[in-house]
Model the fold of this input.
Amino acid sequence: MSSSLMRVNNLKKSFGGVKAVDIDNLIFNKNELTSIIGPNGAGKTTLFDLISGFQEEDSGEIFYQEKNITKSQPHKIARLGMVRTFQLTKVFDRMTVLENLMFAGSNISNDSLFQSIIQFPKQKNYENSLEEEALRVMKDLNIEQMSNAYARELSGGQKKLLELGRSIIRKPDVLLLDEPLAGVNPKLTEEILEIIEKLSNDGITILMVEHNIEAVMKISERVIVLAEGSLIADGLPQEVRENKKVIEAYLGGGDE
Ligand SMILES: Nc1ncnc2c1ncn2[C@@H]1O[C@H](COP(=O)(O)OP(=O)(O)OP(=O)(O)O)[C@@H](O)[C@H]1O
Ligand SMILES: [Mg+2]
Done:
């Protein structure tokens, strides 16, 4: 049985006149692989932004493990074990794959970067263990051969994989994935799906926003549908697929 991990109450966020998110009640369960779908502009990314602290809500509350995280900053939320990826990846083009992973794992904020450079000798052991972690992540993602490639040399799909790696190295309890399959070729899509399923089997709670409906239906235990900021369906993949409101939302609006 699943148990409650996070809940949002009366969560609202508008941009100008546009209601981006307007959700009364939503509970996410521990270790349930949950996908969030909906047409373009439905509010999926904004919901992730609010949960992970990258945007401030107009009103409402968010609880994670019974802790009120509504006004918490992104780094604080990440430290609680909730880590996200971005729809447009945040990999550093001028760093190698290895460096990207080590930087993501380092927890070094820009403020303390200078400090860590001054203390360089002391940092050596830390750096070695960080490198070991990065190698482990690359192995899990099957990208060891790309270790010394610059991120700018990677394909779109490989960047998505690296973005996933940058979040995994932080050892999350909850992983928010914003379109991990966008622009990814079919073969790599299969690989990424297997990785996501493995992460879920290893006990990480996965919340995934994705437009690839086949992939969503294949791996999700639960599917949530947003349209114009509101929740219009929530259930097993098959139930949601047959839901009239969902079919209408996809046929009626959006630019897909
Ligand atoms: N920073 C912003 N400023 C102004 N409007 C925004 C901002 N972010 C989102 N919006 C608007 O809020 C609504 C929801 O956007 P959001 O990006 O959350 O949708 P989405 O479901 O993630 O869409 P997509 O599937 O295209 O990624 C849209 O109408 C969008 O234009
Ligand atoms: Mg989005």
User: Anything to note?
Assistant: Strands lie at 4-15, 18-29, 34-37, 59-64, 67-68, 82-84, 174-178, 205-209, 222-227, 230-235.
